[in-house]
Prior knowledge:
Layout: H1 4-16, E1 23-25, E2 31-32, E3 39-42, H2 46-53, H3 57-65, E4 69-72, H4 75-85, H5 92-97, H6 106-116, H7 139-150, H8 154-161, H9 178-192, E5 200-204, H10 210-219, E6 222-227, H11 230-243, E7 249-253, E8 264-270, H12 281-291, E9 292-305, H13 318-324, H14 333-342, E10 346-352, H15 354-370, H16 372-378, H17 381-399, E11 403-411
Parallel strand pairs: 1-3, 5-6, 5-8, 6-7, 8-9
Antiparallel strand pairs: 1-2, 3-4, 9-11, 10-11
Helix pairs in contact: 1-6, 2-3, 2-6, 9-10, 12-14, 15-17, 16-17
Keywords: Lipid metabolism, Methyltransferase, S-adenosyl-L-methionine, Transferase
EC number: 2.1.1.-
GO molecular function, one term: methyltransferase activity
Amino acid sequence: MADAALRLTALAEELLGEPLPVRIRAWDGSESGPPGAPVLVIRNRRALRRLLWKPGELGLARAWVAGELDIDGDLYETLDLMAGLLWERGADAKDTVHPIRNPKLRTAARSLLHLAGPWPPPPPPVEEVRRRTGPLHTKRRDKEAISHHYDVGNDFYELVLGPSMVYSCAYWEDDGNLEDAQRDKLDLVCRKLALKEGDRLLDVGCGWGSMAIHAAREYGARVTGVTLSVEQAAYARKRIAEEGLTDRIEIRVQDYRDVRDGPYDAISSIGMAEHVGSVRYREYADDLYALLKPGGRLLNHQIARRPERDESAYHVDEFIDAYVFPDGELAPLGRTVATLEEAGFEARDVESIREHYALTLRRWVANLEKHWDRAVTMTSPGRARVWRLYMAASALSFEHNKIGVNQILAVRPVDDGSSRMPLRAREWKASATG
């Protein structure tokens, strides 16, 4: 009798202490759960062994990446329901589903073990980062982490990001065109930095060169872009040559800590500071301060997490750390602003564009789904599944105010304390889409 789904539903509800909001379809064809709900498809019982070995998020992630778990129904609705079921329980979730720590649930665990099949557990998918040793955020370790995320093929990123090749939050006027919204974001950054003909701009974490090209072509800036990704640098240089801007833009494969050719009139850091890490953030702020001329501006565009009551309890999301951004860390907005000011900057403006990132991510997911077969061919089925899950889940996190994204405009004051900022600096917003 095919009854794996019924047994799994009963076990899950016993372990979690509440009804499942999704249906389960098991490898034996059985199905159980609330009618009309999205369906969590367990294609292979290896997924259960992964959960027994790594209860919680990492076990689920490994099963998803391996193709042993899937969703039949709306991806966003299902992730929303699953977040309420497991992830949003916080630190208690692992204890809830870890039977060894809960003697009352050992009987249920034995039943699950029987369903899961023979040991040992399967190895992690090849897309998972191998565990790293040594101190965080050395130059070598950061380069390896960046390579894991960005050196997966420029063709793959073209499918996901579209022609703009901008891998950060767009700036939406309405629910319009992604390319227009990304152009408007780049233009907003240039206006906040008050770029003009001949200004030297340092673009830290320059990606595929979109910010550098926009600043040089539209504002006449002379741009130095630095990235740790060899593939990004090659792609950016090709685009720059095609635009006829090689005399205005230099792209380097270089750590920001090794840039020593200041002073610059302005610095843009868009979606890069998340890789810096708390142990290096003051060094990052000090280095950028030293590279700016007095009166120069920094535009720091960065994802932020909500503050913890006990900051020592903060831990990096297991799935993101293992499959997406190795060693990446998010900081609360207040801590970021404080560190910049501790380094000598004066924070002049903070703009939250949280809702804009949710819109951006949904467009990227739609692009990936539209070109799914090509994306799988260009990378791997597992890699494509990683990107689909992380982008969709991130969109929900921004929508539900679990994380945010902010543009912080800061200046290096001149010796007499002047910021050299106009009295009504926010006039940039009126013409950001012009």
